[in-house]
Amino acid sequence: MTVPLIYFDNNATTRVAPQVREAMQPFLLDEYANPSSIYSFAHFAQDALLAAHEQAAELLGAKPGEIIMTSCGTESDSTAIYSALESRPEKKTFITTPVEHSAVLAVAGRLTERGYRVVYLNVDSGGQIDLEELEALLSEDTALVSIMFANNETGVLYPIAEAGALCRERGVLFHTDAVQAVGKVAINLAALPVDYLSLSGHKLHAPKGVGALYARQGVPFVPFMLGGHQEYNRRAGTQAVPMIVALGKACELARQKFSDENPKVQRLRDCLQSGLLEAIPDARVLGDAEKRLPNTLNMAFKGVYSEDALLMLDKYGICASAGSACIADIHEPSHVLKAMRVSPEFAGGAVRFSLSGYNTQEEVDFVLEKLPGIIRQLRSHGPDADW
Ligand SMILES: *Cc1c(COP(=O)(O)O)cnc(C)c1O
Q: CA-to-CA distance for 343 and 238, rounded, in angstroms?
């Protein structure tokens, strides 16, 4: 028997929207010109690239020339951080948080090896940072501060406007990894003191393998990829036209659907949350429940291993996550939950549900029907081997 797929793992990746697939199709077929070529055949691809920059810029309140198309969110993060630091070679301090995605944390680790002073802000039990701590840490030696817009595991939203303003007052460059926030919360870079912002296509209903970096007009920029003159000399390499067109379309859709879809997704998420809290004793929501993405619910079940719950959910076709796909088969609380000092008996049993506009009330009801029994079973006799 095949079970229908119930996909509640949209912070790991999202399905490609049909309109996105349709928009990119011509560039996989007849419109294969290199957009850097001079002949008329290339004009359609050139126009499509321009349109994609405009669509991304419009979603973010930016200018098209401030958008650099990249291969993924990870490349955008690396580019922003190395670019900022290379442009301030005399400054050796980098400030970030312990709850960043590995795309930032791994770069921070590399920087430590290379003699940088990397400072991690503290987070409280809700995963929140303290702006006063940030303010006290900023110094003449600070080159860059990088704070994520929203956390991928808990959905916690960070005070980006305030943190950016503190940095700007002191001439410190400011980057935010907004991969999880774009399309889910309003972002208007025209009014936000942010110098660099990363996003990724596949978290936004475009395919995997495309991202973008916003670099504010006039901020220092040192390319990460060297070679040709693509992307206004800021990212060499022949543009992945179909993927970039897809990202542009996904940004346009996100903007059109923004005010209908996010409240709907939040209602579903809240229904899931209250239903689970009601039906399952010793369960709690991880992360600041108020300052949170509308689509994310990270819930911990005392005395249960996340992986066991996930495998049993999988029998019903329900896809959820232990917090971060990168640590999916280790019995170790994630770095985010560790930084929040979630007690081990809860942290070991964290299950993240992340929704999208494609989810339905019926799917939420199905999880509410199945999960309480699963948790009861795991608590009374552990995972059932031949389920
Ligand atoms: C997924 C994700 C990334 C990485 O994006 P890729 O396009 O997969 O490289 C970076 N930061 C956050 C917060 C993410 O959720």
A: 49
Cα 35–chain centre separation: 29
Q: Which residues are identified as catalytic?
A: 326
Buried b (16+ CB within 10 A) or exposed e, 214-235: bbbeebebebbbeeeebbeebb
For ligand 1, whether the C-beta of 179 sits within 6 Å is: yes
The string of pLDDT tens digits covering residues 268-299 is 999 999 999 999 999 999 999 999 999 999 99
Report the DSSP beta bridge partners of residue 96: 120
Q: Ligand 1 pocket test: which of 9, 71, 101, 198 has the largest number of ligand atoms within 8 Å of its C-beta?
A: 101
Residues pairing with 319 in the sheet: 7
Q: Is the dihedral of CA 243, 249, 250, 255 positive or negative?
A: positive
What is the value of pTM for the model shown?
Answer: 0.96
147 Cβ below 6 A of ligand 1: no
Q: Is the shortest distance between the CB of 177 and ligand 1 below 6 Å?
A: yes
